[in-house]
């Protein structure tokens, strides 16, 4: 599997502009007969042109939902935290949840990435509870 984050930003302009990237992907697809390409998009209008440029005949779009600022959002954050080995109380602070929602707008991928970075940065070591301050310091990591 070849995963390309923000593939629509990576492939801006005409195919000639990113010919090296296309050639590399074509090379991989010839060598690896079962290659799957997964890309995240910010702009859905680019999907068809990128699929055409990469000669992807069979492609599909899986849209990850954005969570509304409700208990569903809080439950999802707790679920993500649990899957990163966190206790529920570490990601349940109301101020943290509000700041997380404001910074991610409830986007599934952004929530996952934010929690992952916080875990990797050591914010939760020793059972510490996440706070809005931690989100404000993400640029350091």
- The counted number of beta strands is 2
The main β sheet shows up as: 2 strands, parallel
What integer is the average pLDDT?
A: 77
- Radius of gyration over all CA atoms, rounded: 19 Å
How far apart, in Å, are the first and last alpha carbons? 27 Å
Strand content: under 5%
Strand order of the largest sheet: 1-2
Query: Could you estimate the helical fraction of the residues in percent?
Result: 40-55%
Summing up helix and strand content along with how strands pair, one would put the structural category as: mainly alpha
How many structural domains?
A: 2
Commentary on this structure:
- By secondary structure, the protein is mainly α.
- It folds into two domains: 2-53, no CATH class; 71-140.
- The protein is 47% helix and 4% strand.
- The protein contains seven helices and two strands; from the N terminus they run βααβααααα.
- Strands 1-2 form a two-stranded parallel sheet.
- The longest helix is centred in the N-terminal third of the chain and has 13 residues, at 19-31.
- It is elongated, with a radius of gyration of 19 Å.
């Amino acid at each position: 599997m070849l995963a390309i984050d923000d593939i629509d930003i990576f492939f801006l302009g005409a195919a000639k502009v990113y010919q090296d990237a296309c050639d590399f992907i074509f090379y991989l697809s010839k060598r690896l007969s079962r290659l799957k390409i997964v890309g995240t998009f910010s702009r859905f209008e680019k999907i068809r042109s990128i699929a055409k440029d990469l000669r992807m005949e069979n492609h599909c779009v899986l849209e990850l939902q954005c969570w509304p600022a409700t208990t569903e959002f809080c439950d999802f954050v707790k679920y993500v935290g649990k899957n990163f080995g966190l206790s529920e109380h570490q990601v349940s602070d109301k101020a943290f949840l509000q700041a997380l929602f404001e910074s991610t707008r409830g986007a599934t991928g952004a929530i996952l990435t934010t929690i992952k970075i916080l875990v990797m940065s050591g914010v939760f070591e020793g059972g510490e509870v996440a706070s809005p301050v931690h989100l404000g310091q993400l640029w350091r990591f």
